[in-house]
Amino acid sequence: MAGIRNKKVIIGVVTVGIIACSVAGYFVVKDQQEKKKVSSAVDKYTAALTKQDFSKYSALFSEKSFADLATTKEDVAQRYTNVFTGIGVNKIAVENVSTNKKEGDSYEISYELKLDTEFGEITTEKYTVAMNKNETSYSFDWKPSLLFPEMEEDDTVKVATDEVARGEILDRNGVKLAENYDYQQLGITTGQLGEGAEREQNIQAISEKFSVSTEIINEKLNQAWVKEDLFVPIKTLENELSAAEVASLPAGAVIGRTNQRHYPFGEATAHLLGYVGKVSAEDIEKNPELSENHSIGKSGLEAAFDEQLRGKDGASIDIVDKDGLVKKTLLKAERIEPATITLTIDSEAQKIAYDSLGGKPATAVISSPKTGELLVATGAPSYNPNKMVLGISEADYKSYADDTNLPFMARFANRYAPGSTFKTITAAIGLDSGHITTTEERNIDGLKWQKDESWGGFWTTRVKETPVVDLKKALVYSDNIFFAQKSLEMGEEVFRNGLNKFIFGEELDLPIYVEPASISNEATFNSEIHLADTAYGQGELMISPISQLAMYSVFMNDGAIVYPQIVKDQEVKTKKDVVSSDAANTVLNDLIDSVASPEGYVYSLNNPDFTLAAKTGTAEIKEKQDTLGTENSFLLFFDVNNRNFMGLIMSENSRDNGTATEKAGSLVQYLEQHYK
């Protein structure tokens, strides 16, 4: 019996233990579930803030907390939207979140906010918000200090800005290349449009006169803020209307003013300056201090110097009480003045050069050889940057985009085979190596030549049949055969070592990207043909006009390269002893007869009162021998006596578009008159 009683006792104890464990387990599970609910509620709160989803955020608060302050969740959501949009918040980070349990099912959540705004960063002090359980879920208690600590119900957030205007870009003489300009702006006041059919007729008349679709006009007129007496902007006008034209506008049309970027020289400077445009979402992601109200450099020097040109608006973001007194300053950003960028460009020469290109695919680059300052960098065809700023039409943009002559391409930075102008460099290398002399005369028969039968069907050709050729004649008459033969005598090692002293493979220190020049696709020439072809500027040589001009500066600087620069008053950078002074001056003086001699290819530019040296060149692009390829024409020219300017003009497909020499007259005349 005693055993039975003991068993009953044990069973009872075990049963009680099991029950106790079950009860304890229940409470543990319940507690874990409750913690998950608390954590989930807090996560929803911080996520809505981070995403600036203020509708979801305001829905997390209790109706009682809104009622106690005589507001609604819709009003709170709108208040957040107004405040955070007004101060230009781009990104919100919720940090140092802490959950503290209070009495019963109440909690206090604390956290900090970091706000990235267009004026800078605001790091707030600690926020606290009460969270209470309502049956199966949790809600928060709204209070004004959740906008910013220390805010009370009647307080507001105000932004005072001190705006800066974008800095100007000037030419070397202070002439404005990029400025801020008050354009006429077409607007409509709806109260003057009339009603019904009259309204429709007036909108149609405005549409036809200003080339704006009625759909776009009506879309703008149907914006929520529009009232009968308010000016509704429709289109910024590139060309100014006269007083008479303004007086005869259709009913409802009004002319106002708006300040926008303006490029006085239009297409002539477009490839160099680029243009500005509205800030995109991608721009803001890269730089949170930007806002959609800003303009930003989209291409060219406007993009390269955007930060300096843009400066920074000053701003003060304050909490203000009902009497207009500042309670607390959340952020104070000092105004940063924009820079004025002065270029080395001569705007008058730039315009003359651009006009001389005649809209055909071509480019012109002029420099001051002693300093490397670029006086001209232009190309054609081009585009109107003012249209890009004011809002280019789909038709105009499509016209540019579909143009096979590529009006958006900056040809002065694009690489080309340099053609026969490169013979000047081959000559200088040959003079320094001793393989070319000033006295040697070479007998050359006919208009074509090949080393031997190993060259197969490849022949080097020349234009002028000259039986006896020395260096001067070879340069003046651009004799391919002479330079092909001399390159073979030099051999690849000597020739390539000479070329490597130049700037092949170097990235130029310029605010616009110029792809480095290259000698060949591989480290060595793959044949004697390739070597010979390179000697007269073909082969696989690829050099931009800007890089070409830098290389040719050896002939104006006693054998030293002076690197190009485009911003005024920069330190002159040189590369000395690229070729010898004797070689450089020999080549330069030999080129004078190209202009001075009636038999010279550039005699059309001869001026008895000015000593100009020049070298023409063509680079033929063709699929195979014995076919007619496309020719790019080059003209290289030098101010010999004063050494104040040198230039390169290139004309693509010159058989159809005219030679570089034909495009040079007006520009050379201007340079001779103004850079004596």
From TrEMBL:
<dbReference type="InterPro" id="IPR032710">
    <property type="entry name" value="NTF2-like_dom_sf"/>
</dbReference>
<dbReference type="InterPro" id="IPR001460">
    <property type="entry name" value="PCN-bd_Tpept"/>
</dbReference>
<dbReference type="Pfam" id="PF05223">
    <property type="entry name" value="MecA_N"/>
</dbReference>
<dbReference type="InterPro" id="IPR005311">
    <property type="entry name" value="PBP_dimer"/>
</dbReference>
<dbReference type="GO" id="GO:0005886">
    <property type="term" value="C:plasma membrane"/>
</dbReference>
<keyword id="KW-1133">Transmembrane helix</keyword>
<feature type="domain" description="Penicillin-binding protein dimerisation">
    <location>
        <begin position="163"/>
        <end position="329"/>
    </location>
</feature>
<dbReference type="GO" id="GO:0071555">
    <property type="term" value="P:cell wall organization"/>
</dbReference>
<dbReference type="GO" id="GO:0008658">
    <property type="term" value="F:penicillin binding"/>
</dbReference>
<feature type="domain" description="NTF2-like N-terminal transpeptidase">
    <location>
        <begin position="40"/>
        <end position="155"/>
    </location>
</feature>
<dbReference type="Pfam" id="PF00905">
    <property type="entry name" value="Transpeptidase"/>
</dbReference>
<dbReference type="InterPro" id="IPR036138">
    <property type="entry name" value="PBP_dimer_sf"/>
</dbReference>
<protein>
    <recommendedName>
        <fullName>Penicillin-binding protein 4</fullName>
    </recommendedName>
</protein>
<dbReference type="InterPro" id="IPR050515">
    <property type="entry name" value="Beta-lactam/transpept"/>
</dbReference>
<keyword id="KW-0812">Transmembrane</keyword>
<keyword id="KW-0472">Membrane</keyword>
<dbReference type="InterPro" id="IPR012338">
    <property type="entry name" value="Beta-lactam/transpept-like"/>
</dbReference>
<dbReference type="InterPro" id="IPR007887">
    <property type="entry name" value="MecA_N"/>
</dbReference>
<dbReference type="GO" id="GO:0071972">
    <property type="term" value="F:peptidoglycan L,D-transpeptidase activity"/>
</dbReference>
<dbReference type="GO" id="GO:0046677">
    <property type="term" value="P:response to antibiotic"/>
</dbReference>
<comment type="similarity">
    <text>Belongs to the transpeptidase family.</text>
</comment>
<feature type="domain" description="Penicillin-binding protein transpeptidase">
    <location>
        <begin position="363"/>
        <end position="659"/>
    </location>
</feature>
<dbReference type="Pfam" id="PF03717">
    <property type="entry name" value="PBP_dimer"/>
</dbReference>
<feature type="transmembrane region" description="Helical">
    <location>
        <begin position="9"/>
        <end position="29"/>
    </location>
</feature>
